[in-house]
Every structure is written in C-alpha cells, then in structure tokens.
Amino acid sequence: VDFLQSLPKAELHAHLNGSIPLQTLVDLAHERPTVPVDTTDEIAEKIAILRSGLTLDGILDFFPLFRAIYPLTSTPSALSRITRDVLDSFLKAQSVPPAGFTYAPVPECTYIELRTTPRATAHMSRHTYLTTVLDEVEKFSADQAALIVSIDRRMSEADAKECVDLAITLRAAGRRVVGLDLCGDPEKGDVVTFEKHFKRGKDAGLGVTLHIAEAKASTTAESLALLGWRPDRLGHATFLSDEHKALFFADPCIEICLTSNFITKTVQSLESHHIRYYLANDHPIAICVRVESRFILSRCAEIGAVDTDDTLPFRTTLLGEYAQLLAKPPLGLGLRHEQVRRIAAMSMEARFK
Ligand code: 5GP
C-alpha cells in the first residue's frame, strides 16, 4: 500500500455528477423541499436497487440514475457544493481506512481532470454552470485540477456547438478548461454532426477524449468514425476490434475503469479484460476509478452489503483500482512494481495541457 500511495497518479475519467459523495447527495435531497417528491422517491428506489446487489444488468442501467441526481444539482450553490466535495474527495486525505486495513489515508490522486456536461437549468445558463464549476476547480493549483467539458450524445448539434464555443471562449479567457469529452448513453444520438465542433476545439488547443466502444452493440461504423476525429484519449474502448485499433492515430491513451467494467458487465473477468491487450502492446493507458463504481460500491459498503473485511471497500478508491494491478491472480493482474509505476506515470503523461 505504501508503494501505491507513493505513486504520483492522475484520475482522468471522473464525471462530476456521478462522483458526488453519497452524504452530499442525501444532504442536498433534504435541503431542497422544492424537489418533487417523486424525484426523491426515485433516488430511494435506485438506492434500494443498488443495495440489493453489486452489479447492474448492464451498462445502460447507469443512465437513468442521472435523471434522479440532476434536480438536486441544478442551482449554482448546489453545483459549487458538489464540485467542492468531489474535488476534496479526490485531492484531500479525508477518508478513514476500511476496517481491517491500517494504511494512513492519503489523497486518492495527485491530479484530477474533472469532466461535466454544462446544463442550462431554470437557475443558470450553461455559461454560469461552467464558471461555477471552474471557480471551485481553480481553488486548486493547475498541478492538481482541471476541467473537461462533456458533450452529451443526446444533444442537438446547436447545443453541442454552444458547449464547444463556451469551452473555447473560457479557455481563451484564461480559465482552466483543458479538454472536450463525448459522453452519454452509447445507444443514443447521432454524433457525426459533432465532428466539426470537436475539431474546432482541438484547433483551439483543447484535448479530446471520446467514450467509445463501451457496449458491444454500439461498436460499429461509429467507432471507426470517432477514431477519425483523432482523439487524444479514449474512454473505455472495451470492444474495439483489431480493425479499429489499426486506425489509431498517435496512440490515444485508453482510460481504463476496471471495477466499473465488471459492475456494468461489459467485461467478465480480469483474464478477458482489454487492459491485457494494451499492456502487452505497451500502449498508453490511465487507470481510473470511474465514478459510478465508487458510488455504488461505497453504498454497498455503507449498508453492509459488503463485508468490510473484504477487499471490496478497498476497490472503491483509485488506490484500490491500482491494487488490482499489483495483486496476484485471481484477485489482480500480478504486475510487477516497475510496471505499475510505469502505468501511474502514463496517467500523468496523458493529462491535457
Ligand atoms: P455530468 O456530466 O452530468 O457531470 O456527469 C454525468 C453524465 O456523465 C451522465 O449524464 C452521462 O452522460 C455521462 N456518463 C457517466 N458515466 C458514463 C459512462 O459510463 N459512459 C458514458 N458514455 N457516459 C457516462
């Protein structure tokens, strides 16, 4: 553990609204009497579902969760608060070790690129959304935190354009926007119309990361088209074929979320995980905790669905994801210390500027 803690590492795949500590979410639900009752009921129902087991039926089960969270984070003050709490949860040592573990708490990572989709709500414009998040991000040094603007696949082209315009303008004004992300339900939207806007972002110096090939069914011609955008990084890339990989331009770093892949059942085992291909080919990767796995596992640990002496609570942190690299099979990949050191260094190298 000392070794893993000592490694400088970057968390590059944290979705803001998916990373909110549970207590913050509960507090917000209590503080917002204006939130319709059925919304809090919906949250309770989702929590009950999550409590009942560690896995979801599949990756598409994630997306309805956000419909329950968004009404709670639709004001500037709630948005400031969640951004603060999420950044603190990654960058400040505040957690106590799980029962049975004796390691001293340290920050989860050295650096985080937080990503979020700017939402216009009844209380704020997309511009206000982004400046509110940036105000919190910029309380940390540039060596610690930066922001990626996410474009949801369900957006219209006009909305995607507005988000990219904002990212470019804010960056030009000296705000700490470092990249663009394509996210959202992989079965929704027609992303081809977004290409020119991502290209404009790239030309303006923004890094580009794309969720790609997350679900088997959505890994078709679209993946080939997305690779043509020359992304700097790829999220998940679980089902990319050899044909896709042959099209890699300048070896995009793959953001790997081990635990999340198992929870969403997109990968069945460490033996069959696509990380093995990238390790074998010395291809850049970044290990990321991926929010919702943190979210779900911490809930399970909290209500005792997981034995706290188990390794599972350990896996709710970035440290835990790295522990799976080092642990001997079948618990982990059994990599050597120098390999894990190299992987952590790759995450730092893949940061957007
Ligand atoms: P937000 O951008 O609102 O801060 O974070 C939540 C959003 O991130 C979700 O609405 C969804 O669009 C996106 N997101 C979270 N997890 C995933 C994922 O596993 N795959 C994809 N494609 N998008 C995700």
UniProtKB/TrEMBL annotation:
Residues 8-287 form the Adenosine deaminase domain. The keyword Repeat does not apply. Keywords: Hydrolase, Metal-binding, Nucleotide metabolism, Zinc. Its cofactor is Zn(2+). SUPFAM superfamilies: Metallo-dependent hydrolases. Pfam families: A_deaminase. One of its GO terms (biological process) is nucleotide metabolic process. One of its GO terms (molecular function) is metal ion binding. It catalyses: N(6)-methyl-AMP + H2O + H(+) = IMP + methylamine. The keyword Cytoplasm does not apply. Belongs to the metallo-dependent hydrolases superfamily. Adenosine and AMP deaminases family. This is Adenosine deaminase domain-containing protein.
